[in-house]
Amino acid sequence: MKIIRVISTIFITVLMSLCLAQKAWGFCGFYVAKADTKLYNQSSQVVIARDGDRTVLTMANDYQGDVKDFAMVVPVPVVLQREQVNVGDPKIIERLDQFSAPRLVEYFDPDPCAHNRRYLESAPADLGRPGGTRGPDAYDRSLGVTVEERFSVGEYNILILSAKDSRGLETWLRRNGYKIPRGANRLLRPYIRQNMKFFVAKVNLEEFDKTAYQRLRPLQMAYESPRFMLPIRLGMMNATGEQDLIVYVLSPRGQAEITNYRTVKIPSNTEIPVFVKAEFGDFYTAMFQTAYEGEGKKVAFLEYAWDMASCDPCSANPLNWEELRKSGVFWLNSGRSNNVSLRSNNVYITRLHVRYTRDTFPEDLMFQETSNRELFQGRYILRHPFTGEMSCRAGVDYQQSLNRRLQQEAKTLAELTGWDIDEIRNKIDFPDVKPIPWWRHLW
């Protein structure tokens, strides 16, 4: 008979709006606006599906403002043509978030007096392994700017620019009606030196009005390049403080790592008091900030790494074949049914959470694929004490061990979050242990 009896398992998705509110979110490009409209990054999630040198990049943002003022500039390694750009399904980003989000797991202690068994303090049972036209004019050439491609995709009008000089590119954007964030010239220069191109997108209002969406949909681009990187420096120009970025990397091999900054695992598999169930958003926000400061604010956190053929425990069902295809996974076997197992498709997801500023992350993010298929998840454990009548010696032993366990949970929570331990203890219902008279079970 198992000592710990699992009655139910509860998963609480760490939604971006819940746990990281009040933060300015990062983006892999910068926003530009007509006239003097002030635009700020509110949230950003990026999906990178990569196999070898082939990449499908999906960029989702939580732009706040009138869509007529929206435009963005993103460095890209190659000139993109119309067929390489797509408007994505925003529900796919939500599915990836729900599937990979840190989670709570809930257990209930059994009756220590059942069958007169002695309760043995134990950790919870393991739930498994953790159409373009080209036409540069003389004016553009005088600034060193070339419009390499010009096309429309869905509700977006797209330009692909190349530039020889950062000042010329800044001038071109300003004279074409864009309000460039201060400092653009300095941050554009390294990308021009690397011979990168610039993906410029703004909204086609007529096409946007035809859609049923209230918010802008993600943009996707497919390209081939040995550079496995994500530009984040331009996004700092729209920042009002620290920025957060969630990156989902999908690979047929294994975990993805950031090579120019340390990647560390988020604190996980810890037992915390049951009252945190009602405060999980506040808990995760405080825990992440504490870990972020403890690592010197210069690391990327691994929040999830798993084979997408399964999950254990599951916060949401694994993505089916069609959802993975929409996520940019291009190496799937064509024509597969949604009901067919995904094991042979070999899709591995890595969820990385980066919080950064100009000072802590002065370089763009450089990645590498690895063959490491170790499973990891941000998981936090609630153990509900048994509250029924306990009239046996094992019940007294259980309550004494429970007191020690609850004290340890309070200490763990204080260390993870920086919360005051006395306030934590005031929220915990410690048992009042009364000794059983020595003679009760004498006869």
Written account of the structure:
- With about 450 residues, the chain is α+β, with helices and mostly antiparallel strands.
- It has a domain at about 15-60 and about 90-130 and about 225-425.
- It starts with 15 loop residues before the first helix and ends in a 17-residue tail after the last helix.
- A hairpin with a 2-residue loop joins strand 3 and strand 4.
- Helices cover about 20% and strands about 25% of the residues.
- It is built from ten helices and 21 strands.
Biggest sheet details:
10 strands, mixed
The radius of gyration computed from the alpha-carbon positions, rounded to a whole number of angstroms, is: 26 Å
Total count of strands: 21
Mean pLDDT: 81
What is the rounded distance between the termini? 28 Å
Identify the overall geometry. Answer: elongated
The helical percent reads 10-25%
Instruction: Give the uncertain stretches in residue-range form.
Output: 1-27, 31-42, 117-136, 335-344
Note the total helix count: 10
* Class from secondary-structure proportions: alpha+beta
Range of strand content: 25-35%
Structure characteristics:
alpha+beta; 26% strand; elongated; 443 residues; five-stranded antiparallel β-sheet; 21 strands
Task: Please specify the SSE layout and strand pairing.
Elements: H1 16-19, E1 24-25, E2 30-31, E3 44-51, E4 54-61, E5 71-76, E6 85-87, H2 90-100, E7 103-108, H3 138-142, E8 145-153, E9 156-163, H4 166-175, H5 184-193, E10 197-203, H6 205-210, E11 219-224, E12 229-230, E13 243-251, E14 256-258, E15 262-265, E16 270-271, H7 280-294, E17 299-307, H8 321-326, E18 348-356, E19 365-369, E20 376-377, E21 379-384, H9 393-417, H10 421-426
Parallel strand pairs: 1-13, 3-13, 7-21, 15-17, 16-21
Antiparallel strand pairs: 2-5, 3-4, 4-11, 5-10, 6-11, 8-9, 9-10, 12-19, 13-18, 14-19, 17-18, 17-20
Helix pairs in contact: 4-5
